[in-house]
């Protein structure tokens, strides 16, 4: 009987960890996406100084979430986001807003992919 309770407890813990990772990744990704959308609006309004400041704030949020993501998300995706931030910064300093917007869009798609991979559904469970 003790073994049955122990096994049930392990299953409950595993399910709780899955729910926690899914919720935290989704919440963090949505927060990051809203920051990236704000940067895109600032770039399209040609307010690069404010866009750089907002990018710095978003990058700080990413650094905090990166610690959590490193346990859950594929390392290649994390590295792509890091490269994306550095390239956006470089393009903004060079005044190349088109490439900065392209990189922003790529980062948003990467966040969508990360969220989709961590969502609790039958496809991801299997």
Short characterization:
The chain has helices at residues 2-44, 48-72, 75-94, 97-118, 122-125. The chain has 126 residues and is mostly helical.
Task: Characterise this structure.
The structure is a single chain. The chain is an all-alpha fold. It is 90% helix and 0% strand. The chain contains five helices and no strands. It has helices at residues 2-44, 48-72, 75-94, 97-118, 122-125. Helix 1 packs antiparallel against helix 2 (48-72) and helix 3 (75-94) runs antiparallel to helix 4.
Order of helices and strands: HHHHH
Radius of gyration: 18 Å
Profile the largest sheet: none
Number of strand segments: 0
Task: Assign a percent range to the helix content.
Answer: over 70%
Structural class: mainly alpha
Can you tell me the overall shape? elongated
Primary descriptors:
126 residues; mainly alpha; 90% helix
Write the layout of secondary structure elements.
Blueprint: H1 2-44, H2 48-72, H3 75-94, H4 97-118, H5 122-125
Helix pairs in contact: 1-2, 1-4, 2-3, 3-4
